[in-house]
Amino acid sequence: MAVAGCTKCIKYMLFFFNFIFWLAGGVILGVALWLRHDSQTSNLLILQFEGHQAPGTFYISVYILIAVGAVMMLVGFVGCYGAIQESQCLLGTFFFFLVILFACEVAAAIWGFMNKDTISKELINFYDSAYIKAVDVSGSPSKDSAIKVLDVFHKTLDCCGKGDDTPLFKQVTGTLCPTKTPEDFLRSQSCHDKLIELFSEKLYLIGLAALVVAVIMIFEMIFTMVLCCGIRNSPGVY
After folding, report:
1. What PANTHER family is this protein classified in (predicted)?
2. Three-state secondary-structure class, residue 79
3. pTM for the full model?
């Protein structure tokens, strides 16, 4: 028999939250695909220098987001169907996957917090390795390729150099940043700062999405348990 009273209200609230959860999964999947193909990050992370690929740690979090978004859409559909059909089996399956997803999200949040500076630091080190070769006045064999790598950084981030103002940097500024004028250097042109800013914005977006999803999941787990108890205690259910 169908549930009634407050339990029926919980049923439709759970359906509503599951629908929001399903939509959130689609949004997260879309955001993750955008982050994966964003021109700024893609231009930097496809670079190679002296046989080494630019660090791709950022893409790990993006691939996790893609997987989470796809799973959320599937689980959200199961939850919607289970709520409408008042199926304890489907709701139990839905609750199980919610707990797994929530645990994975907490683990990913802890990992992200502990490694929030790793992505920018790795790319800063990659930039610095090319920068050292590019300003080498002794004529390093890899100087030309280093200048090309730096050119991509400078054009993508609209920056120039590491933020220092050494005589050596002033000497090679025309080579490394031919489009920059002396007036441009009155404001910060540090590629270090621009890299930190770029990935801080991306990670903030990921963190915000994770927080919203976590709140929705908590409400869904509560409503699922209440609805399961209501179905079990309904007349005609033994």
Report:
1. TETRASPANIN
2. helix
3. 0.73
pLDDT at 230: 78
Q: Do the Cβ atoms of 72 and 25 come closer than 8 Å? A: yes
The pLDDT of 146-164, averaged and rounded, is 82
* Chain centre to alpha carbon of residue 232: 40
Give me the residues paired with residue 52 across strands: 49
Is the residue at 238 inside a domain?
no
Tell the burial category of 160 from Cβ atoms under 10 Å away from its Cβ (0-12, 13-18, 19+). buried
Mean pLDDT is lowest, of 34-43, 67-76, 122-131, for: 34-43
Averaged over 22-27, what is the pLDDT?
87
CATH number at residue 104: 1.10.1450.10
DSSP-assigned letters across all residues of 184-199: GGGS---HHHHHHHHH
218 in Cβ contact with 106 (< 8 Å): no
Beta strand spans in 23-97 (E): 48-49, 52-53
